[in-house]
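G., the chain you wanted modeled:
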Amino acid sequence: MRLLTPAEVEALATAIDGRYRVLVDLLAYTGLRFGEAVALKVKRLDLLRGTCEVVESGTEVGSRLEWGTTKGGERRTVRPPRFLAADLAAHPAGRPHGPDALVFTAPMGGPLRERKFLAGVLKPAASRAGLPATLRAHDLRHTAASLLIREGASVKAVQATLGHRSAVMTLDRYGHLWPDELEGLAERLDRARAAGLAPSTRPTGPAEVVQLHKRPGQ
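Predicted structure as C-alpha cells:
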C-alpha cells in the first residue's frame, strides 16, 4: 500500500499524459476502483449537483474486458471536490460524446485496459514525478482513503465513499490510519471524574435538616 500526499498526487497528475490528468485526480480523491473509472459514463456525472454515480465496472478476464456491476454489487454516489467536478465537466467537452460515452478512453479510442495503462502511462509518469516504479492504480484508491481519514472522515463515510460492503472491511484495511484516541480519552475521563468529585451545590440549610428528622404524623 503506497499512500501519496496531495503534493505527490499533483506531481503525478502533472507528469502524466494530459488525457489522464483528470483520471489520476478522480482515483486519488474519490477512491473509485480502476475498473469503475474505466466504465464511468458521461450520464453518470451530475456536476451541477457535484455528484458522480458509480454503477458499472470493467474487469479484465484474460484478454477480454467484461462489463458488470461494481465489486460490491451496489451502486453508490460519490462527491468529488469542487476542483475535480469542474475538471470532469470540462474533460469530455473536447470530443464528440453522448450520455453513454465513456468518460475515459484509450489513446486510440475504446475502453482503457489496466495493464496497458499501467505499463505505458502510469509507471512512466510515476518515474518522471519521482515516485516509485511499483506504484499501482489501486494505490490511488488507498490514497483517497488516507486523505479522507486525515480530514476527519468517519468510518461510515469512508465505507460509503469506497463502496465497501461493511465498516468492518474498512477498519480491517485502513484502521491503522485513524489517529490513536486513547491518550485523549484518558485525559477526558480524568476531567469527567474531577467534575463528579466537585462539591454539590444543593442547599443543605436548617429547613432541610428539620424535614429529615420529622416524625410521621407531626
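The domain at 6-151 is CATH 1.10.443.10 (hpI Integrase; Chain A).

Shout if anything looks off.
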